[in-house]
Structure formats: C-alpha cells, structure tokens
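User: Can you predict the 3D structure for this chain?
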Amino acid sequence: MGEESRWQVPLLNENTKKFPVDVYLYCGSLYDRWLLITHYYLGNAILLARRAGSLNLFVFPQDVDPRTEKLE
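Assistant: Here is the predicted structure, written as structure tokens:
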C-alpha cells in the first residue's frame, strides 16, 4: 500500500463507524491554522460535520496532523 491509500476514506459501515479520527477546525488560509476540536469515531464525526453546516470541519486519521504535515 502506497502513500495514496493513507488518505482514502474508509467506506462507512458497522466496522468503520468505530474508526478513530481527529476532528479539526480550519481557521483560514491567512494564518494556516488548524484547531483540534476532538477525538472521535468516523461515524460520529460525519454526523458532527453535517450538523455544523458551513463550519470548516475536517476529519483526519489520528496519525495525520495537518498542523505539521504538508497536505496536498
């Protein structure tokens, strides 16, 4: 498995709903700041993002930190 597979989102099913993720709020490109909101499971994080509407919420696997890694 290459680097590409690291960024693929698992399909949402009974197993992946419990996939551990981090939820970040992106605070704008001017400062390029990411604020860690919470540790969550994928199923709950998707529900949270839907309820948040226009907030810039992003979900990452827990081993990926957008504050230190270059995201493409």
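The beta strands are 20-26, 34-41, 57-61. DSSP finds one helix and three strands in the chain.
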